[in-house]
């Protein structure tokens, strides 16, 4: 079966290692090959530093792996400016990046802040999705009121032609996330980052029930995408988790590759 992981990073997190970006790419490809992942989308972070490569750096080091790796460029109001927006526009036009990721919560702006509108307009112009962080954060300096999934409803309503991917199912507000998806036909969600490391049995049972409830509520298997948030989450454990959902073949194919292939135009 084909698998597209729509949500991975090259960031070096505490306890995960501090390898250079080139080495992280090699490690990612190794893990993908081991687990039968055909294609992964690498998301650049909300800022660039020694631990977080920029979108430009990721583009450069993944050029020779374009059949297996794509790039989604991170954007923030505080850490990105006019030059970044101009680059993103060109990269979207040329197909160099597949979408743009916002880090609401990590930076203290709601998704409907006017500072993001140029990103939304850009994504609509080039038929690319915007990914928005929703739910819990990895940083204790983040403010989660900015990442609550209900805030995405405003964007979906005001930008009906914009494809929106809510990252992490808005966890722990998954019921709110499922309502936003159900109500707005231009909203999708990925299942990434639900745990750190491996799933324990109790955690697995909890999320299996939550995702089954979500799929039943929205009644549309075209709206959920497979993603892991590697290297925070273990890819092998994530695949086993999805198998625990006991989806039929059509639902499984859509989740694991079909939906991402269509939304990101891969």
Name the descriptors.
266 residues; alpha/beta; TIM Barrel; eight-stranded parallel sheet; 8 strands
List the helices and strands and how they pair.
Blueprint lengths: L3 E5 L12 H15 L3 E5 L11 H8 L6 E7 L6 H13 L4 E4 L14 H9 L4 E4 L18 H7 L5 E4 L6 H10 L3 E4 L10 H18 L5 E2 L9 H9 L5 H15 L3
Parallel strand pairs: 1-2, 2-3, 3-4, 4-5, 5-6, 6-7, 7-8
Query: Judging by the overall fold, what is the CATH architecture?
Result: Alpha-Beta Barrel
* Fraction in beta strands: 5-15%
CATH topology (fold) name: TIM Barrel
**With helices defined by DSSP (H or I, 4 residues minimum), what is the helix count?**
9
What is the CA-CA span between the terminal residues? Answer: 16 Å
Could you characterize what this model shows?
- The chain has 266 residues and is of the alpha/beta class.
- The chain has one domain (4-263): TIM Barrel (Alpha-Beta Barrel).
- The chain contains nine helices and eight strands.
- Strands 1-2-3-4-5-6-7-8 form an eight-stranded parallel beta sheet.
- α2 links the parallel β2 and β3.
- α6 (174-183) packs parallel to α7 (201-218).
- The protein is globular.
